[in-house]
Amino acid sequence: MKKKVILTYGTFDMFHIGHLKLLKRLAKMGDKLIVAVSTDEFNLLKNKKTIIPYDQRAQIVEAISYVDKVIPEYSWEQKIEDIKRYKVDIFAMGHDWKGKFDRLKEYCEVVYLPRTKGISTTSLKKSLKLFSSIDKEELLKAFDILDRLKTDLQ
Ligand code: C2G
């Protein structure tokens, strides 16, 4: 009996729970999950600046129990070739891509799944930026005041 093969694409920078939940849901849809991880060069084409380099992002995705195989994503055009090569049954993406890959319906089922709310690599980068921009001196002064207040209240 042919294994049901699922294929998805993504950058998976600063791997987070939104990525994990998607891969977990995709794994449940079939027998073999293939994930194409965007190379650093391809991310430049996507105008996407990544923090973690490709080889580390690929290793992290490969280490996930839901994932059976990782391949590089180096172009927009490789999807049809990948679907044929790996005999893909379902091509799936988060619904931020809804409608963008409907042309692939000619080759396999195309599914868009809801994104996980409240988490994104962009928001993680923003909170990191905010954290590192806090003036350390100011922070220490604030802690000092808090300590004094606590002592006064005792
Ligand atoms: N995702 C999600 N929930 C989030 C964040 C991301 O479900 N909170 C999903 C996205 O919808 C996508 C996958 O996780 O399906 C990977 O997200 P990105 O790494 O941002 O991938 P992207 O840059 O959208 O690359 O050819 C397609 C592109 O390579 C997709």
Supply the key terms.
5-stranded parallel sheet, 5 strands, binds [cytidine-5'-phosphate] glycerylphosphoric acid ester, 154 residues, 6 helices, single chain, alpha/beta, Rossmann fold
Would you kindly provide a written description of the structure presented here, covering whatever features stand out?
Helix content is 42%, strand content 18%. It has 154 residues and is α/β, with parallel strands linked by helices. It has one domain (5-119): HUPs (Rossmann fold, 3-Layer(aba) Sandwich), CATH 3.40.50.620. The protein has a five-stranded parallel β-sheet. The chain is elongated, with a radius of gyration of 21 Å. [cytidine-5'-phosphate] glycerylphosphoric acid ester is lined by residues 9-12, 18-19, 22, 38, 48, 73, 93-94, 96, 115-116, 119-120. The site of [cytidine-5'-phosphate] glycerylphosphoric acid ester has 17 residues, from strand 1, helix 1 and strand 4.
User: How are the strands of the biggest sheet laid out side by side?
Assistant: 3-2-1-4-5
User: Number of DSSP strands?
Assistant: 5
Helix amount = 40-55%
Distance between the termini: 72 Å
Largest sheet: 5 strands, parallel
Q: What is the CATH homology-level superfamily?
A: HUPs
Query: Can you tell me the CATH class?
Result: Alpha Beta
**Ligands:** [cytidine-5'-phosphate] glycerylphosphoric acid ester
Task: Give the SSE order as H and E letters.
Answer: EHEHHEHEEHH
CATH level-two architecture? 3-Layer(aba) Sandwich
- What is the number of helices? 6
Give the percentage of residues in beta strands.
15-25%
Structural Rg: 21 Å
pLDDT below 50 for ≥5 consecutive residues: which ranges? none
- Report the mean per-residue pLDDT as an integer: 95
